[in-house]
Each structure stands twice: as structure tokens, then as C-alpha cells.
Amino acid sequence: MATPAVPPAHVRLILTPLDDSFHLDVPAAQIHNNCKKPLKYLRFLGFIIMSVLGSVNHSRDPDDEVDYDAALIDCGTYYYESPLPAAVNPQILRDFQSSCTSSISTLLSCLLKEFEKQVELRDKRCIFSGAKFVCNAGHIIDFHVGDECIENIVDARLKDEIRVNAVDAIQNGLTMNPNIHRLWSMNLLAVIKTPNAVLSMEDIPQRARPLMPLTKDSKYPTDCRFTLQTITDTIPQAEVTGLLGGYNVDAAFP
């Protein structure tokens, strides 16, 4: 089956070395909203998905690396190339996506309630909006994967930083208001931490925000940022502003 053409106003990032079947088609406008260096952002996406640090190239030629200060090519195709085999098997990702539609047992529901209680006690309020009431705890690594899969998902270079060994560990949760949690559960939002192996804090646009955190008992970290982002154009811009307060919303913590 032939690979479909790149949709208008998107760019394609091909993630597998031998064929074009496993790829991302990302709205170019969203990349510009999320990062001042769009090609560096593509490299970050490849790193996060494949769990091995590589480069973004114009072709499969390993010497054809892009200039990360250059502009995106409209409807362009880029290749994520790495010197090591990918740490993630694309078929596992496809199987995981299918498994997310499975039902939740009564036992799992009880575990989720305890997880939500502990995360909300820690954060006290939505870490993005400051809302205190009717908040929900969301998983960072989806609970459907199960504890046994975390070792395969988290890259070895990130283990000291992430410190998550169970999907229902409190470190794997964030407290959000209902609007953010709904979009999060639909896989329309993600949180990017900077600095990371590819991006600096300065690469992420700074949204206009109060000089002080939204609440007196929370603060913005000074040595890092946890920024709420989307790479889909499913959410209209008006809703991004109305529901989230704008693009690149930084988290503040107790």
C-alpha cells in the first residue's frame, strides 16, 4: 500500500529506518505555537517516541541532517535517524493503542480512586489553572500499559529523573481541572519538561502569565518548566484560549 501524501499545512516525520509506514503528520502551525525552533521540536518528538536520541534529516542519508535554525518546509517530509536501534517497537505502540479501549475492572477502579486521592492531596489544586474544586488526577504514563511495561517505555537515561516504577505511583500523576483532564484523557494534550536532551527552556515560547503564581501556596520552578502543549489541530484556537488559557501553560506547584 502506498504511503499517503502529507496533508496540507502539515509536516511528516518518518520514525522507522526501513519504510515510511510509522510516521507522524503534525500540523505545522502547532509546532510553531509550541517551539521557537520547529526542527528541534521534531527532533524532540522523535526522541520521546522512539526513546533513543537521533537527528532529523532531509533524507535517509545519515549526513543529510537539517539546520535546526532553519524554517519548516510546508508539506515537507523529514526522517528521524539514530545511530542505535530504536528502543521502542512500533508494533508495541500499535498494540497499546488498541488496548486503551479495553474495559476497567472493579479492582482497577478502586486503585484509580486511591491514586486520584493521593495525587490531589499532594497538588491541592490544578497545577495549570490554580482551580481548587472538582479537579481530577491524570496519569502521565497511561495506566493501561501496566507496571510491567514501564521498564520498556522509560529510556535508561531518564530513569534517575522520572523515578516511576508503577503506573499508580504518585509521581505518575498530575492534578488538573475538568477541562484540561478531559482533553488529556483524549490524548489531545501532553506536558513537556524543559530543559531536556533536545530543548532548552528558552526554546518554548513564554505565555503571558502573572508575575506571581495563581495561588500563594504554589510557585513556578526556576530551573525547569513543565509546559502544557498540544500537537493536534483538533482543538480550535478559540477553545485552546477558552479552556486552557492559551498555548504553553506552565505548571506551578505547592
UniProtKB/TrEMBL annotation:
InterPro entries the UniProt entry points to: HNH_nuc
One Pfam assignment: HNH_2
UniProt superkingdom: Eukaryota
Ranges of residues in domain HNH nuclease: 126-191
Protein name (Swiss-Prot/TrEMBL): HNH nuclease domain-containing protein
Protein's organism: Roridomyces roridus
